[in-house]
Amino acid sequence: MTQVQLEVRGKVAVATIDNPPVNALSAAVREGLANAIKSANADAAVAAIVIASAGKAFIAGADISEFGQPPAPPSLPEVLDAIENSAKPVVAAIQGVALGGGLEVALACHGRVALPAAKLGLPEIKLGLIPGAGGTQRLPRLIGAAKGFPMMLSGEPISAGLALEYGLLDEVASSDVAAAAIRLAEALAAEGRRAVRSAATGELTEADREVFEALAKDALKKADGMPNVAALVEAVRATALPFAEGAAVERRLFLSLVADERSKALRHVFFAEREVAKVPGIGPEVKPREIASAAVIGAGTMGGGIAMCFANAGIPVTLIETAQAALDNGVNRIGAIYDISVQRGSLTLEAKAQRMALIKPAVGLAAAAGADIVVEAAFEEMGVKQQIFGELDKVAKPGAILASNTSYLDVPTIAAATKRPQDVIGMHFFSPANVMKLLEIVRPAGSADDAIATAVVLGRKLGKVPVVVGNGFGFVGNRMLEQRTRAAERLLVAGALPHEVDAALVGFGFKMGPFAMADLAGNDIGWRSRKARGLKAAVADAICEAGWFGQKTGRGYYIYPQGARAGQRCPEVEALIARISAEQGVTRRSFTQEEILARLLDPMVNEGARILEAGIAARPGDIDIVWINGYNWPAWRGGPMFWADSVGLDLIVKRLEALAAEIGDKALEPAPLLKRLAAEGKGFANLKG
Ligand code: 3H9
């Protein structure tokens, strides 16, 4: 079975790539393309060649799953050289996305025709890479670096219309792109070989180079330590060299980036993001329910944000409160958030009006009667939730999905307040709900498969990354966060200071450390929750007892002079911490950044292992996706479970054993799964499949 079929139509040989789902350039496709070019050139009856594709995508790029494996010949640059140097002109017929190596195939051709809906781009930057098959050399030579460099820097594809304007395409065909490509191929053949232009022969003008250098300077400033931005600049600069030399520079840079841990992490995230959409036990035969309208209960910050998600997706939503004043406040808050977008220019006044019109404020639960889905975002207290669900059971229409936006509570207990537990699930949004990508969908035992499938489809429609998780205190994200919070408190008592702990996490790549985060969210939230659960945290409790709730009170772990967002070190807090260490008989010591990181992150990994053992997360990659999309874990670090693998599970086990002994806390001992994998010399990645 060849993945490239060659068929001669008149004088034109059409090579059609057929490698579902997205025609990635696997070794078999590369070989098939090389053979097609060779045999078409050897066939005296053929005057020109067209490269076309079956399916939706033209070519989605190199096969990402092959990276990091031993290279299988022919390499893509070799195939592209064969296309470019073909004695007979080659034209690309682009019917769908031409991305990465896919666009590089098209660039090596002598002509390019696309359908209007096609998209063209070089997204390698998003995988921690740069184009590696001549893209950095051919694209700027064809359309100029002033246009080509930003395309490679952002990784965002452009439309066929813009590509035509740029000169990246020769033609946009309204239909039958293969026929249009055949016509162009015939015309090029008729003009004769010498008239055929190759992207590799183009040269950049002085003015173009100047614009590029200015853009490059700016990009390097914002590169944030990502090595591929500097590599991209270097590769584009190499267009000043003869093509073959420039291509060699690009290849060297590309190969070193493929081996870089940051790109490995981003590739892991690419596949984990797609895998997370597959819910174990729920196949395509499970049809999601139709969601044409929604209701959100609670017009507080969370409920308002969730209502905005529905309105942004064009779904009418009833926003419900118990009293008019609270409702008015909620609606005003939503309006004010949209106003900020309007001021920033990211939303038109008209769009704001349309979205506000989709939000229907109402007092009383009876207004939820017509909704296909009801999302409860009321106070986080079991009694409150049970009362609401009991009433909803009476008013909601049959088959409506009843979702609780609980962060910690037991969903089956909430469901037990209804006579339709199969329709009750958790939908845990993250604050601010209209911004954060993560949506934990809690799937309690007894919930209907089609209710879960509906929530997944809806989640994506709302622009979220839905991750289906099992029921259990704190689900995945908050359960692991609690370990980090405890670890941060332990570090303070042992000798570290808040700014040192925060700096370690920021150095790792988080936007904020745990104490800056707590000050932003409000320290009283954790305090209330600890009190309700009978838990103690000496430093955190003392901070709250002093009334230092964080930014909103002007002080917390840090001081915030006159509403400043960045906190300053607080001598009183530091003295308070030292006093608590002394009270607990601890001799304070200093910690390196590396020690701080290990103490914060190892217990999270341990909890992740327990979550996997309990089946609360289906795969280690799901946990990574939760942390990247809900808690700002840097994507280029791949998520906590990927990070653990890169550190080595045996080392994490040793560190946890030492920590458990030092603290005298059995809960910190390595989980059985972690120990087993470490003993077998494996990582979490081995759990796949
Ligand atoms: C590159 O080209 C380097 C070169 O410069 C140099 C080489 C020397 N490889 O996203 P979907 C799979 S780097 C392997 O759900 P959609 C994906 O895993 C590459 N597999 O569909 C999924 O599998 P499964 C530059 C790939 O319709 C299935 O296809 N290119 C690849 O929402 C469907 O994917 C890119 O970065 C791949 N390249 O979106 C483009 N692409 O069904 C990456 C997809 O088993 N791809 N798969 O879960 C995309 O942006 C989107 O997948 C695309 C389709 C827009 C194509």
Features:
single chain; 689 residues; alpha/beta; 2-enoyl-CoA Hydratase, Chain A, domain 1; Rossmann fold; N-(1-d-carboxylethyl)-l-norvaline Dehydrogenase, domain 2; 8-stranded mixed β-sheet; 6-stranded mixed β-sheet; 28 helices; 17 strands; 49% helix; globular; binds (S)-3-Hydroxyhexanoyl-CoA
Secondary-structure-based class equals alpha/beta
Helix content class: 40-55%
Bound molecules: (S)-3-Hydroxyhexanoyl-CoA
Discrete helix count: 28
CATH homologous superfamily of the largest domain, by name? 2-enoyl-CoA Hydratase, Chain A, domain 1
Write up what this structure looks like.
The protein has three domains: 4-259, Alpha-Beta Complex (2-enoyl-CoA Hydratase, Chain A, domain 1); 294-475, NAD(P)-binding Rossmann-like Domain (Rossmann fold), CATH 3.40.50.720; 497-583, N-(1-d-carboxylethyl)-l-norvaline Dehydrogenase, domain 2 (Orthogonal Bundle). It is built from 28 helices and 17 strands. It has an eight-stranded mixed β-sheet with strand order 12-11-10-13-14-15-16-17, with helices on both faces. Strands 1-2-3-4-6-9 form a six-stranded mixed β-sheet, sandwiched between helices. Strand 2 (12-17), helix 1 (27-42) and strand 3 form a beta-alpha-beta unit. Helix 9 (227-237) packs antiparallel against helix 10 and helix 12 (301-312) crosses helix 13 (324-344). It starts with a strand and ends in a 10-residue tail after the last helix. The structure holds (S)-3-Hydroxyhexanoyl-CoA (3H9). (S)-3-Hydroxyhexanoyl-CoA (3H9) is lined by residues 21-22, 24, 57, 60-65, 76, 97, 99-101, 104, 123-124, 127, 131-133, 135, 271, 274.
